[in-house]
Structures are given as structure tokens and as C-alpha cells.
Amino acid sequence: MTQPVWLVVLLLCLGLACPCVTGIFMDKLASEKLCADDNCLYTISLARAEEDYNAPDCRFINIKKGQLIYVYSKLVKEKDSGEFWAGSVYGEQYEDHMGTVGYFPRSLVSEQHVYQEANKTVPTTVRNLQKP
Question: Name one GO biological process term (predicted).
Fold first, then answer.
């Protein structure tokens, strides 16, 4: 083989042995959340956005002032953390975002209608589901 081919093979081997991509650590927002059921599948309430919100990372959703949001869980506030709820946006002009669930600050919405009480405390960690 010629020298350029060996150089390419060497660079490829080095690239595979030392990957340059690293993950980004994201702080945990809370250890527990309040839900209507054990799996947080049922809607707790309907909220209306009072201000626009641009999501800072993939855990959050963008919301626009006036937009309706179905709320599925409410994080239990810890120490100096903010108060966040998890929900899904709703509305014709945001159809591409419907079904996307993410967090948003509770302070930016007003609860319009409560469907059921959030009286189940559920850990935010992933649980191992065992088959019966």
C-alpha cells in the first residue's frame, strides 16, 4: 500500500479507538413527581401559557403565550430548584409538537381546569419493570 493509504487507515483506527464525542451531564430536576396514576399517563389539568418559553434543552418543551398545555405530572420541588410541570402542548398551529411531553416552569402558566387530583407520588428515576 502507498503511504497516503496507510495514513488514512491509521487515522481511522485512532478515531475508532479514541472517540471524540462525549455526553453532556444534565442535573436532575427532582427526585419525585405528583401524578394522577402510577405511570403518569392520565391528564391532571389543563393550563394556559401566560408567557412564551424557549426550552433550554431536550427535557423541556417550547410554549407560546396563550397556548393550552395538558399537564401530566408536577415535579416535587427540592431546595433551591425551580418548580416544573410536565405536559404536552395543544393547538392547531403547533400540531407538529402535539404529543411531545416535556417540562416547563409552573410560574409561566395558569391552571384552567383540574381533571383529577395529583395524589400519587412517583419517583422520577427509571424503575425496572418486572414481568409477573
Answer: cartilage condensation
